Structures are given as structure tokens and as C-alpha cells.
Amino acid sequence: MRNPNKPRESRPMRKSVLILISLLFAFNLSACNRAPQPRELKSEAGRFSVMTPTPLEEMVQSLETQGDKIELHIFSGQREDTGYFVSYWDYPPGLIHADRMEKMLDASRDGSVAKVSGRLIREGKLTLMGNPGREMVIETGGQTGPEARRLQGRLFIVGDRMYQIMVVTPKDQKSRPEPEAFLQSLKLPGGQAPVERASPPVEKRD
Asked: How many CB atoms lie within 10 A of CB 86?
């Protein structure tokens, strides 16, 4: 019997992260010295827009969780050795309640870390036009090698929808402005309000 106090949303989140990581590892890592020209990607169905330094292609995955069918929409692209992702999915109406949003975000964060066998090194609380969210940095693999990755991601609950925006880079990559600009650029319809930090990021390193 399912524990009624346990959020049901962690499985879609875990599966989505696995799909995103698989997509990144499948990319051919090619060098490109030209400076990126950010362009707007606007999804009418997804009700969001984002400024991306590389074209993003959409794919749809059907997931089943707790007897419910959920369609996961993933927009993904690559520039050099960096993967850019935006995804969203809708929960059944009535599943998300205001008093459970923080637990849902916590469960999604924990599922993300567990499913990639990673380590959470930083997290914080965000809001986007008043909608609750999380920012997180996860590291996977060792210090070098193809599995040594850093995932910088943000999650937002907007109505019955979960949005995820993520950048995946080699762990030893030097800081560049494009990934942060991409994360900051997520907008909802009719909204120009920037993402606000509800609490400062907390370092999780030992």
C-alpha cells in the first residue's frame, strides 16, 4: 500500500534525468570556436521561452508512474562539450497542493542525485513569478573521464506542471557565461520577472 505522505512525483523526475544524461553521452563531442549567438526558443504548447546558444530539438517520452501516464517533453542540444536541456511534464489535475510543493521539489532533487549516482554539492530555493523552485549542482563520476560531469539545474512547479532546465558540462570545465545565461533565461508567458533566490545556495561539500 502506497504511503499517502510520500510524494508521487519523484519517479518522473528520476527518469527524466536519466534520459537527459543518456542524450548528452550520445552526443559527438566536437570542437567549435565560433562564439554562440543566443536565439530564442519559444514553445507555445510548453508555455515557456528560453534563450539558447545552440538549436534545441524536441522529443517526447511517455512515462507511467503510480498508474498515471505522463508525457515528458525534452528539448536538447549541444555546443562543444556542453549539453543544454529544457523539459516539462504535467501531473494529473489535483495532485499538486500548495502544502506539498516543497516536499515534491525535495523528492525530485533527491531522485535526481540518486539516479545518476551523483553527489549534491550545492542547492538553494528559487522563485519564478512567485512559483517555487530549486537550483542544484550535482557531480557525477570521478575527477576526469567521460562520466566526470557537472549538472547545473533548476526546477519549478507552475500549476500542475514541472519545468526543468539543465546544463551538463565536464567537471573540469572552466566557467563560461553561456550556461548561466541559459539557466537565467527561462521565461513564462507574459512574464519578464527574473528568477529570485528565496534562500542563498548552500554548499554540500564534505
From this structure: 26
| CA dihedral for 14, 174, 170, 139, sign (positive or negative) | negative
- pLDDT of residue 29 exceeding 90, the answer is no
Per-residue pLDDT of 44-74, as tens digits, reads 999 999 999 999 999 999 987 767 788 999 9
Residue 136 C-alpha cell reads as: 542544484
> Where are the domains positioned within the chain?
10-28+36-203
3-class SS at 82? strand
Architecture of the domain whose range is 10-28+36-203 = 3-Layer(aba) Sandwich (3.40)
- Number of other CB atoms surrounding residue 137 within 10 Å: 18
**In residues, how long is the chain?**
206
Query: For residue range 75-115, what is the model confidence (pLDDT) as tens digits?
Result: 999 998 899 999 999 988 888 888 889 998 998 888 888 88
Closest C-alpha to 183, from 172, 171, 194: 194
C-alpha cell at 72: 515528458
Supply φ then ψ for residue 94, to 5 degrees.
Answer: 90, -5
Q: Between the CA of residue 155 and those of 67, 106, 109, 152, 167, what are the distances in Å?
A: 24, 10, 9, 11, 12
